[in-house]
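This part of the workshop introduces the protein records we will be handling. The question running through the whole workshop is how a given chain folds. To make this concrete, we reproduce a full record directly below:
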Amino acid sequence: MEKKKILVVEDDKFSFKLYTHLLTEAGYEVASTPRASEAFDLAKQFNPDLVIADLMLQDGNGFDVIKKLRQTEQFKNTPIITLSNLGQDADKKEALKVGADKYFVKSNTRFQEIIATIEEMLKAKE
């Protein structure tokens, strides 16, 4: 069976390494970038089955990345999980409004919960 592909858009070095490692261990093929400006091109090349996006990025924000992905036919139905330190309701609402399917606050979420959500979303997509 072909490995499912996950794109991680995350600028925090620790989180970036951690997610890449844990997702690879869980059997996924992972591509990642810390830059909003690279996220879309990388997505087009990599063609991920799912995207995990932080909202605060080196050179932009995750809202724009999500919006741009959703406006593209190729990614209209690709599951997108937002993983952020921004815990405000307004941020959550905005992320969901621009096209994220799930929103997690990093400090309140165990990685197992994220993996379970990823598996659920990928199954639903099949």
